[in-house]
Amino acid sequence: MANQYKGCCVSINCVDGSVVQGEVSGMSDDNETLILKRPFKNGIPHTEKEIRLKASMIENLKIIKAQLENEPVINNSQVAKNIKKSVPVPKPNNVKQKNKTKIASNSEPEQPPQNFTNHKERNDACFGVSLDTIVKEDFDFEKNLALFNKKAFYNKIHKKPDLVPHEKVSNKYKHNENVLHSTPVKFRQVTVPSPAINEYITDDGLVVPSITSELRWKLFNLVEENGLTTGRQNEIIGRAATEMVLQLLGGGYRFNPRNEHQWPRVVVLCGPNRSGAMGVNCARQLSSYGVHTVVVLSEPGLYTPQLANEMALYQFTTGTLITSAAELHGLLDPDFVVVSLADEQTDTVSRNITNWAKSVRSPLMAIDPPSQGTPSVVVKYSLVPALPLSYSESNGKIYLCNMGIPTQVFHLTGIQYKSPFGSKSVIPLHNNE
């Protein structure tokens, strides 16, 4: 064994984690101790010219240079176990046969300079295999590609996972809706003791029943007795009406400082009643946005306390007040018309005003109109407070305003109430057919 490995350059991984390299100079008589000369430990020349390594200290052994190029190369794991098995070392291809000379078996190979040997051994230990032992053969791509079953591979990666069968859901969900519902949605969250004829539904599918005018007045009187006065109610619905008018006029595109040359003009038709006071309140708030407002009083000599309070504030705006029906003929088509002429207790309206309202081409919006509509006037939109009445088609599209009435006040009137407004203060209602 000693003569067989003598002269070979080896790299040894020791059990303590260190790496020892050197040239084999011999082995002990019992073949249990390996003797290396010119040793390196962890890439640094050893202080001793010759070291001895016991077999129990060797974890892995690798031959990085054989003694002679035609000498057999021993498998790494077999060397560590002292099993004799030779593997031929390929000869360099760049040596021509006619110029090749035989090397005597008793001669020693020419040793490279020490610095070169050190670097070569270090590179071989780092990169694994000595460049001198690589077989220079072309890689057979066609043969190796045949070993790759492309069809089986693609079937494997494109195979669909086994899913648990489930019931198909045909519903299409919006971006703000949950796909999974923990509990069924209760669409009827408002119930009244004596519902009217019509029933409405919100965009979210919630059912809103209509109420009678008697139940509505009972609700308004009770909430006023508990602090939500008529003036505060007018302010709430007036604000909602203002927001609707601003959006219907074009919103931020229309109300741009660069568009002052075409600032909108809104005419508000007001009667001597609760609805008229809401209309004047809306006109005052529209004026605060710079809208040119014109308030037309159907009966100038008749003022209710609510209407008088609202008119006292409106006089401080830059808006116009018309008290004669004859002045209406001088008004060209405005951008928008708010109708606040009648409520549930009003039967008649000035014919001159209704004739003018029917003649204009502007969109009309009513504030809290009678259930049967404003006499002789058909509007496109209607804004109503709290809970709707059973409205006729002449009231147009119905919008419901949140008046901020406490839930317990609804319960005191016999109404089981849960807000249908969500995050909004005004919502559209549709007939629930």
UniProtKB/TrEMBL annotation:
Q: Which SUPFAM superfamilies match?
A: YjeF N-terminal domain-like
Q: Mind listing the GO biological process terms from this record? A: deadenylation-independent decapping of nuclear-transcribed mRNA; P-body assembly
Q: Does the keyword Oxidoreductase apply?
A: no
The subcellular localization recorded is: Cytoplasm, P-body
Compositional bias per record (Low complexity), positions renumbered to this chain: 85-96
Q: Could you tell me one molecular function GO term of this UniProt entry? A: mRNA binding
Q: Where is the YjeF N-terminal domain?
A: 215-411
Q: Which domain of life is it from?
A: Eukaryota
Task: Name the UniProt key words of this record, in alphabetical order.
Answer: Cytoplasm
* Residue spans of biased composition, Polar residues class: 103-117
Q: Name one GO cellular component term.
A: P-body
Q: Which InterPro entries match?
A: DFDF (IPR025762), FDF_dom (IPR019050), Lsm14-like_N (IPR025609), YjeF_N_dom (IPR004443), YjeF_N_dom_sf (IPR036652)
Q: Where is this region: Disordered?
A: 84-121
DFDF domain spans which residues? 127-163
Query: Family per UniProt?
Result: Belongs to the EDC3 family.
Protein name in the entry: Enhancer of mRNA-decapping protein 3
Q: What is the protein's species of origin?
A: Macrosiphum euphorbiae
